[in-house]
Amino acid sequence: MVSSGHYSAEWIAALQQKSEVGFAIGQTRSLNTQADLLKDMSHFIENAEVIPTALGDPLLGALQLGGEDEVILSSEAARRLAVREGDTIRLRVMRQLDTRREWGERTLTVGAILVPTYFNRPALFVQQSLLLALESFRDGYRIPMLGISTGLPLTDKPPMFARTRIYADSIDQVAALDLWLKQQRIETVSRLADIENIKSINRVLSLIFNVIAGTALIGCIASLIGAFLANVDRKRKHIAVLRLLGFTSPAVGLYIIFQGVILTLLAYGGGILLYLSGSALFNRTLASSQSTEQMICRITPFHSLLALILALTVAILVAIIGARRAIAIQPAESLREL
């Protein structure tokens, strides 16, 4: 959201239930999303961003907060503070109350450090309750967790949020979610133009891949047909001997088909092994440019099963063509070679 408003916790909870929404969390006013961070007198950050987070935050990936006093630092914040995972830092905020300045402070533990690929500004990710405490402190309330015993006592009034950090469930849901928010008169930053460009490139690349794959499949089928027919012609004498020994036409045909299935299974197993070694190398090589926790090169069990079924189907159909020629071989052909 690019503009501030007044959103209740119930409104945000209803937003989280929408099918288009993958993650949503309320944020306070912009002034209250900043705080000073200190490690010592030589390492400090003024006005670092304080960002609320929760389970399932796509910005953090697999990282999670363990408690209210645990935070996740951005890589830039960790660099400037010279801290590592497990170190402690102090969070400080200032307010003006009755013509005097007051400083609230809390010691926090660095639970994890976010790689710069995800967020490159100095910031810390905290539980939403800590961010609400910072806002209440600046609004003049008494916040013991910040070491402050002055100010108005906190009320039971439910919190109101100025903005909401929202992520669509998938790239295909962004347009629908953006439209719905605009219908609610909420302006957002969605980067729809960039998304449409990526989807256009994806469609073009998919078309090119499908053409290449289709051409390769046709060539593979033609090559297999030729190989099976050549194999049958090369073994005409052996097949004729089998017929002479009492093998029926269906038995000879099943022998050819069974041979094709066995060869296909061996080739499929070899292909899977080559894929596993190649994908591991590919993922490791491009890991530095990843922007998500997903694999760059991955075949699901469903796709593996689908590929196996397709390979066996093609092999059986091609083997049937070779089997028909093998069935036509007569037992007398073996006697002519004697």
TrEMBL record:
InterPro entries: ABC3_permease_C (IPR003838), Lipoprotein-release_system (IPR051447). The keyword Cell membrane applies. Coiled coil: none annotated. It is a multi-pass membrane protein. Its main location: membrane. Residues 211-331 form the ABC3 transporter permease C-terminal domain. Keywords: Cell membrane, Membrane, Transmembrane, Transmembrane helix. It is found in: Cell membrane. One of its GO terms (biological process) is lipoprotein localization to outer membrane. Pfam families: FtsX. One of its GO terms (cellular component) is plasma membrane protein complex. The chain crosses the membrane at residues 207-232, 252-282, 302-323. It comes from the Bacteria. Belongs to the ABC-4 integral membrane protein family. LolC/E subfamily. This is ABC transporter permease. It comes from Aeromonas caviae (Aeromonas punctata).
